[in-house]
UniProtKB/TrEMBL annotation:
InterPro entries: AA-permease/SLC12A_dom, Amino_acid_permease_CS, APC_YAT. Keywords: Amino-acid transport, Membrane, Transmembrane, Transmembrane helix, Transport. Its main location: membrane. It is a multi-pass membrane protein. It holds the Pfam family AA_permease. This is Amino acid permease. It comes from Limosilactobacillus pontis.
Amino acid sequence: MAETSQSDHSTGHIHRSLRTRHLSMIALGGTIGTGLFITSGEAISTAGPGGALVAYIVMGMMVYFLMTSLGEMATYMPLTGSFSAYATKFIDPALGFAMGWNYWLNWAVTIPVEATTAGIIMNYWLPSVPQWIFSVTVLALIFLINYLSVRSYGETEYWLALVKIVTVVVFLIVGVAIILGIMGGHAVGVSNFHYKKAPFVGGVPAIISVFLIAGFSFQGTELVGITAGEAATPEVSVSKAIHSTFWRILIFYICTIFVIACILPYTDKNLLNQNVSNITMSPFTIVFKRAGLAIAASVMNAVILTAVVSSANSGLYASTRMLFSQAREGYAWRFFGYINKQGIPIYALLGTMLVSALIYLTQFIGPQAYNYLINASGLCGFIAWLGIASSHWRFRRAYLAQGRDLNDLKYRSSFFPFGPIFAFVLCFIVICGQNVDAFIKWDWQNILISYMSVPIFLVLFIYYKVRYRTHIIPLDQVDLSRSTKGEKYVAPDDEDK
């Protein structure tokens, strides 16, 4: 699609309404969800307590490097659409086209999945009410939040993230009390770290398999880059949010894995539970019950419902902005780039909501089709991370090649070039290792299901490259201007008035 002028189809402007506290809390709470509350136990069961900690520490380092890479680009050039636009500017328009649609698909599918999960969770309290009623309610709620204003999204995420953060902090306090014997009877200490085959179970292959679990748990950290385009002070907000990433990973994931591993041996069958319909088997619930909290299951059910709604809400925001960015870059119909007077890309919002609703309905028409759509987005997040690492590598090299001074950058990644290279290599390993057993057994159906998002991405990339004959942009021709292709912004003070 040919690029189009923005002024001929935009009557409103993007509002920079997200404050530092919004971005910081979005960054803090962005990855806290079912991956931490439920599937963290599987990591311990698979690789043992030591193996799980190693896997999460390594993956946490990678995510931190990715965030510093994204932070450098986002503070220099805060764009709605973030890393897709960076891939277009710094590498190849074909890559930006494929990354944008890949990321949009990821969240467009995730939204109905989270809505379905919310219905399952609500049935814990109200089993006689059909799940679809709760799911539709969640879809309507997140649409309303995103329709009102970007600030309503920011405020909602702020408080939802706060609930999750408080839960994790309380869990860590209770867990430490149990480990020391202050609560729950005798002190358990760290005996489970040398129980049977612990601390390392299954060796290196098991640790690599946990990379997948950890990686999916960390999905969503890149949302900070998406929000940069609507941040009131991106050069301050984004950098603060990036710095908080390290402490988030350390406290919320590493410490949580450590506490669970101390209290529950890796042989505990409850650790293998991954089903939100059986919240009583969540590691969090078991630990709270051991501390004497009788209503642990209900509390954790409410917290996980909060996490699911937060994920769906962020998914609608991210996919809407990505579709808007695709239109602004000329990769989608231009009316998706229209902004209403409230600063909302309204047609991008409606279009994304419609697609997500149709995907949700496929489970009633053909459950197998619904499952294939879910699998189609399986590796989309890792592909986006590959793009972020690649874009930063090219951005920094182009910046220096054009004779610019690194001291002029408002935020600079301290780990270049190691950071983006390490992130790229690890993401590539995770993608390739998604289902190695399927290749060993030549199980083509499982290969297709596991890797479906990869050929979809390649088809998008090759289609655009062949049709428009694009090429990798030479370093001295990379566009480092801060042009936002016609995007106009309303300052937060103006919007407040």
